[in-house]
UniProtKB/TrEMBL annotation:
Domain Transposase IS116/IS110/IS902 C-terminal, first and last residues per copy: 215-298
Keyword Ribonucleoprotein: no
GO molecular function, one term: transposase activity
Protein name from the UniProt record: Transposase for
Domain of life: Bacteria
Keywords, comma-separated and alphabetical: Coiled coil
Species in which this protein is naturally found: Microscilla marina ATCC 23134
Alphabetized InterPro entries for the sequence: Transp_IS110-like_N (IPR002525), Transpos_IS110 (IPR047650), Transposase_20 (IPR003346)
GO BP term, example: DNA transposition
Length: 350
């Protein structure tokens, strides 16, 4: 039986926690795309093996040398499959959620099911020229695990302190419960400090990572923990080619609410990495305590909106973009920027 030839073939995978939908699509040229197969598999090692057998069986029915696999970055649930395919020496692409969403919107795909999403991703890898995924380094993987653990401990610590505070002000507080809470707080504080020390040690073990993070901490208000979280959550900004992609990934992209003559409030989407937004709150407060570009930005936004929180959010966004710039350029923050005009500052920040 003669095999049908395709210029390119794309395999899209829509990943969920427990399973994933897969689609194989062929490109014949002249904007002709054809769905060749669709199926669903468990998001487990055995499911990966079944997926590989299924995909190779269908790919073997056609002639094509240009084959690419695309999945969307969904928390951590895509990582094991990405590693599995990477070890098979095939081209794996991991797209940002915002990239996939924009592509679907541009294609006029309004329905949303796992099967349709997989088809959209399969077509996306055929239409777009996307960069191959590179696995996260061992030091970066350890850093992300440590920073998320530190965040969890800090949340538990805050909850325990709040509970103890409420107990202290209650009528006839139970001494046993108070003793337990105090012991718990002491234990969590010790774990938090130990985890912070381990984060610092992990950064210092990797000389290149250490030097790059020092560039980020040259910004007033950005400490080691802040820099470590941002770098770990973005894999050293590996997936990003623009500030727009980065701010969208972190949920700082602007959502407008206008229709006809009605003008609603603009706000950030918050549809992104919450770990980054959480860690940038305190640095934004600190950054506006000194004269300079961040204080100027805060004042401009506050003057326009009369809302302090919008000013702080704008500073968080600018801090993230500045960290991205310093990382890419291997430079420290230039404090002489504070003596320049607003136009000159904006030119240097991009």
């Amino acid at each position: 039986m003669k095999k049908h030839s395709y210029i390119q073939m794309g395999l899209g995978m829509d990943i969920a926690k427990s399973d994933f939908s897969a689609c194989i699509m062929g490109f014949e040229g002249k904007k002709k795309y054809k769905v060749l197969a669709s199926s669903k598999f468990s998001n487990t090692p055995s499911g990966f093996e079944k997926y590989w057998s299924w995909s190779q069986k269908h790919l073997g029915k056609h002639d094509c040398e240009d084959i690419e696999y695309l999945m969307e970055a969904t928390g951590v649930y895509h990582e094991n499959l990405a590693w599995f395919l990477y070890d098979k020496s095939v081209k794996v692409v991991v797209a940002l959620p915002s990239q996939a969403k924009d592509f679907m919107k541009g294609e006029g795909i309004r329905s949303k099911t796992d099967k349709i999403d997989a088809q959209g991703l399969a077509k996306m890898v055929l239409v777009k020229d996307l960069r191959a995924w590179q696995p996260i380094s061992s030091s970066m993987q350890a850093l992300r695990s440590l920073t998320r653990h530190h965040e969890t401990i800090q949340k538990d610590l805050t909850q325990s302190r709040n509970r103890l505070h409420a107990l202290d002000y209650s009528h006839n507080p139970d001494k046993f419960v108070a003793k337990q809470l105090k012991a718990q707080i002491k234990f969590l504080e010790k774990q938090r400090d130990q985890t912070h020390d381990q984060i610092e040690a992990t950064v210092k073990e990797d000389e290149k990572l250490h030097e790059k993070i020092k560039h980020l901490t040259s910004i007033h208000g950005v400490g080691l923990l802040t820099a470590a979280v941002v770098v770990a959550e973005t894999n050293g900004f590996e997936l990003f080619t623009s500030e727009k992609q980065l701010t969208s990934y972190a949920g700082y992209d602007i959502v407008e609410n206008e229709s006809g003559t009605r003008k609603g409030k603009t706000k950030i989407s918050k549809q992104g990495n919450a770990h980054i937004r959480r860690i940038l709150c305190m640095p934004a407060f600190n950054a506006i305590n000194v004269e300079g570009v961040f204080l100027n930005l805060y004042n401009r936004v506050f003057e326009r909106t009369k809302e302090k929180m919008k000013g702080y959010t704008a500073v968080q966004r600018k801090l993230l973009c500045m960290m991205y710039t310093l990382w890419k350029k291997d430079e420290d923050f230039d404090y002489s920027i504070n003596n320049k005009t607003v136009e000159e500052q904006n030119a240097l920040l991009h």
